[in-house]
Amino acid sequence: xxxxxxxxxxxxxxxxRAVTTGWIVDFMFLSLCRRFKEGKFEEFNEIIETxxxxxxxxxxxxxxxxxxxCAFLARVMHGxxxxxxxxxxxxMLPLMSAAKIWCDIKHTVAEQRLFIDILELLFVQSVTVCLxxxxxxxxxxxxxxxxxxxxxxxNLCSKVSxxxxxxxxxxPLLNSYSFTRLLETVATYLDAYLEKNPxxxxxxxxxxxxxxxxxxxxxxxxxxxxxVRHxxxxxxxVTQDENIQTTKNKTTKRKxxxxxxxxxxxxxxxxxxxxxxxxxxxxxxxxxxxxxxxETSTILKKRKNPRxxxxxxxxxxxxxxxxxxxxxxxxxxxxxxLDFEGRSGVMLKDRWRILVKCHQH
Length: 361
What we know:
The chain is an all-alpha fold. The protein folds into three domains: 2-196, Serine Threonine Protein Phosphatase 5, Tetratricopeptide repeat (Alpha Horseshoe); 211-253; 311-357, Arc Repressor Mutant, subunit A (Orthogonal Bundle). Helices cover 61% and strands 1% of the residues. It is built from 14 helices and two strands; from the N terminus they run H-H-H-E-H-H-H-H-H-H-H-H-E-H-H-H. 30% of the residues are buried.
């Protein structure tokens, strides 16, 4: 009998734990959405770390959509940082990874137009952030990858392709496809999702508790006493006092968190997104690599040694200089006959300088 009672108690606690975990995940999800919309980068990353630990629980499959959305937000938030790694494939940049997850959570998007808008913004910005960082080879990679895996408007693809050829990250196209607009459009998606999935149980309960606290009642009593004492003041004073009273009431009764916020080219499909990130040295951005596991875990930081220049790469560089001229590094990277294995124009320039010094040019 005692053993049976103990077993029943364990089972009951397991169910309670699952429900409690769900509330915590909802609260963390709500907090993450708010930090994303406010653009608070450091606080966003702190919440991601905490959320990773929470979603390691046995009931994590119950929160799959929210975990996926969090992973999507993490990739967008780090979209401009080409030294951030999320997946195993070396060539998968943050916004490319975000596009994969975005397609996986398509069922959470209320409007088809919104889904398409964000996908197109991810496409344009995946290329643009590479151009801004002078990573022409990565820009070409992103362009070809999106064209192969997604059905995008032909005129948009042509404009982006032209932008890459001109090596121009300030194209007028970006007036309509800016990174700021990407963030704003994702925020619109979050607003719509949270309207259907409030995720605010803990927020409401915490608000009720604060409203019922002695401090809250005392504050309300103070406001009442102030009104009685100042019955005979002038009209202007009454108006000012009413404004103060309104402010006090809002302060003591506000919600803690508002609920209305806001191959070379074959990439393996995303099984379960990795939330956190790891970085590589800034001088080796071409080594963008991905997390070892798609399961959530602690943040990993990994540094890779720079790849050595081979005789083959030197031959390609010499051929490129002969064909395009010294200093035409961007044109060399766009030359389909020359494969520099992900190196940037700056790397080509530095290597050419070394060859000239060694009289090997």
